[in-house]
Amino acid sequence: MRRLHACLSAAAAVTLAAAGTAALAAGSASGATTALSNRWYAAAPYLMPLDNDPPDAATIMDATGLKAFQLAFVLAPNGGGCSPTWGGTAAVSSDTAVQAVIDTIRAKGGDVSVSIGGYGGTKLGQACSDAASTAAAYQQVITKYGLHAIDFDLEEPEYENSAAIRNEIGAAKILQQNNPGLYVSVTTAGTADGTGWFGKQMLLEAKSQGFTPNNFSIMPFDGGFNGAASQTGALTNFNSILQSTFGWDQATAYAHEGFSGMNGRSDTGEYFTQADFQTVLDYATSHNMDRFTFWSLNRDRQCTPADNGGRTSGTCSSVTQNSWDFAKYSVKFAGVTPPTNTPTPTPTPTPTPTSCKTAWSSTAVYTSGNEVSYNKHNWKAKWWTQNEVPGASEWGPWQDEGAC
């Protein structure tokens, strides 16, 4: 519940498939680089590039090793209409300021996701007439910036509007289908029980539409939380909700679950320190969770002594810290290979090698489902990729299909 941020026609939807594929395959207009691994998009902390005294992304990258940023927030225009803007005021179509931030990040080997919604303001799901027109508006954002990831931040007051949530979930499904390999997260409010009634209704809407994002993340703050133990308890309860809603087992639910915290002093006066972040990070990695992020990088610095601890700010944390302390936990999450807490399985017999697919090429562009051979193994692409060697990283874009 982020209270600190400043808060196309349906016919256009027929162009979504072609525009979406082009955006992810090339991204030429925006200077998009080869996509990072999903692990990085899952670790991207939120950054307001136009409000709340934006910190310099390059400085954070140099200081911490961070590679991915979650830019916030895309909203409907304050004056009405179904077209994307930054914060309700700056049209995406004519934007140059956010594009400059993205170009800086990509020039240093990083990338961005864009978050839509948030707390306050008018959301496109509220302003657009249906899922197709909502998706068309978001497709403009994906195409302009050559995005490989997008976040649907569905919370108050929008998630109390069933028609708006139907539009948002429907739009997310359309974007997922028309942009192969697009990393999609859905973020919503957290409660001690996992998530509240409206959050559960959102999950049921996703189930009814047959939509499964990379993860459903909760924000366990601003709801009577007290440190990491209350947050991990909420994550455990949310896992049970995911199991019961979608019929998943515990491991599958954790693989589709995410955490979105608030560093320092929350809107309601809760405090979350670096030690709390470490505890939740340990929980997330030990349970093989899909996402670990926080609100926000604008707040990831110490307040002046006179303000420290006495107020909640959009530009500092109100706890004792060095600049970018909390960003380092995102870097840790992106680099961690989640440990396994289960016994080593009995090895299965090695299958008889099959014929090799066409050899992998460093210059070719591959999309989800493409198959290649490399180092006497066949590999299948999990998402859009170019010049990423099969098997180079556990979190990379290639799935090993066995010896050939």
Structure characterization notes:
The chain is of the alpha/beta class and 404 residues long. Helices cover 32% and strands 18% of the residues. The protein contains twelve helices and 17 strands. It has helices at residues 16-25, 38-43, 57-64, 97-107, 124-127, 131-145, 162-178, 197-209, 228-246, 250-255, 274-286, 327-335, and strands at residues 46-47, 68-75, 85-86, 90-91, 111-117, 149-153, 183-189, 215-219, 257-262, 264-265, 271-272, 291-295, 365-366, 371-374, 377-381, 385-386, 398-403. The strands form four sheets. Strands 1, 2, 3, 4, 5, 6, 7, 8, 9 and 12 form a ten-stranded mixed sheet that branches. A three-stranded antiparallel sheet has the order 14-15-17, with no helix packed on it. Strands 10-11 form a two-stranded antiparallel ribbon. α7 links the parallel β6 (149-153) and β7 (183-189). α1 runs parallel beside α6 (131-145), α6 (131-145) packs across α7 (162-178) and α9 packs parallel to α11 (274-286). The radius of gyration is 21 Å and the shape is globular. The protein starts with 15 loop residues before the first helix and ends with a strand.
Structural class: alpha/beta
Low-confidence stretches: 5-30, 338-351
What does the average pLDDT come to? 88
Strand content bin: 15-25%
Largest sheet: 10 strands, mixed
Count of alpha and pi helical runs: 12
Radius of gyration: 21 Å
Layout: helices, strands, pairs:
Elements: H1 16-25, H2 38-43, E1 46-47, H3 57-64, E2 68-75, E3 85-86, E4 90-91, H4 97-107, E5 111-117, H5 124-127, H6 131-145, E6 149-153, H7 162-178, E7 183-189, H8 197-209, E8 215-219, H9 228-246, H10 250-255, E9 257-262, E10 264-265, E11 271-272, H11 274-286, E12 291-295, H12 327-335, E13 365-366, E14 371-374, E15 377-381, E16 385-386, E17 398-403
Parallel strand pairs: 1-2, 2-5, 5-6, 6-7, 7-8, 8-9, 9-12
Antiparallel strand pairs: 2-3, 3-4, 10-11, 13-16, 14-15, 15-17
Helix pairs in contact: 1-6, 1-7, 6-7, 7-8, 8-9, 9-11
